[in-house]
Amino acid sequence: MHGDHYLGLVGLISSMHLWGRKKELHIYGPKGLAEIITVQFKYSETIINFDLNVTEVDSEVHALIVDHPNYTVHTIPLKHRIKCCGFLVREKPKSRRLIHDRLPEYLTPLQKLALKKGENINDDKGEIILNEFLTENPKKSLSFAYCSDTAYLETILPIIQNVDLLFHEATFDSSMSERATQTFHSTAAQAATVALKASVGTLIIGHFSSRYRELDVLLEEAKAIFPATQLAEEGKSYTINAH
């Protein structure tokens, strides 16, 4: 609930209203977030044209908070001056992929669905066609972990193990490690160490202290430990690749 993480939220919600949003919006965050949004809406007399559903999560436990047909979202308990959590997004197992140039023309939609589920089917003569002849393995389900404000914390390692993309704060370089400890933040080296120990695919570091006019010192420090590191840059898109 530190301001740099939520102060722009009401403005974003208001912009969504002005852009014509009608679909319900779900927001997940720490205890107190619903009150903050309500108070700001009250005194600014803000009215929006879509339903807003705010769910306050327990920042101290690793728990499932979203169970979507295609993915799940869990909380990641972090260590900061106030209660804070990150989020882990994992795609659910995907369907097998049809090899279209091998599919008989007579297949029904139900048969194709059965193939995607990994089942064998019968041809038009009642003979069994093995699933492996008509399908390929599904694409890998991807994963992303977002670890915002936190001191170096190894208890998150089992939770984020083998994720494809990890965002981890790197507020300071190692020359400021004492300051990092005092403020419950991480250095670039510590973020990279978490990535290394968790065997992640790619690391993105961010949440840089304003003292850094140039970020090379942070990137170089992290890459010395975990080469597959990138800087979080405003406006840049990042692709989650399987590893």
Describe, in plain words, how this protein is organized in 3D.
This protein has 243 residues and is α/β, with parallel strands linked by helices. It folds into three domains: 1-56; 58-94 and 140-243, Metallo-beta-lactamase, Chain A; 97-136, no CATH class. The chain is built from eight helices and 13 strands. It has helices spanning 9-18, 33-44, 109-116, 131-134, 157-160, 177-183, 188-197, 216-225; strands at residues 25-29, 52-56, 64-67, 71-77, 85-91, 97-98, 121-122, 128-129, 135-136, 143-147, 165-169, 202-206, 229-231. The chain has a seven-stranded mixed sheet, covered by helices on one side. A hairpin with a 5-residue loop joins strand 7 and strand 8. It is globular. The relative contact order is 0.10.
**What is the level 1 CATH name of the largest domain?**
Alpha Beta
CATH fold-level assignment of the largest domain: Metallo-beta-lactamase, Chain A
Principal-axis shape equals globular
Structural class: alpha/beta
Number of helices: 8
Q: Please tally the β strands and state the result.
A: 13
* Uncertain residue ranges: none
Amount of beta strand:
15-25%
Report helical residue fraction. 25-40%
**CATH-wise, what's the superfamily of the largest domain?**
Ribonuclease Z/Hydroxyacylglutathione hydrolase-like
Largest sheet: 7 strands, mixed
Order of helices and strands: HEHEEEEEHEEHEEHEHHEHE
Question: Average pLDDT value?
Answer: 95
Named at the architecture level, the CATH assignment of the largest domain is: 4-Layer Sandwich
Q: What count of structural domains?
A: 3
Strand order of the largest sheet: 3-4-5-10-11-12-13
From the alpha carbons, calculate the radius of gyration and give it in angstroms.
23 Å
Calculate the terminal CA-CA distance, rounded to whole Å: 33 Å
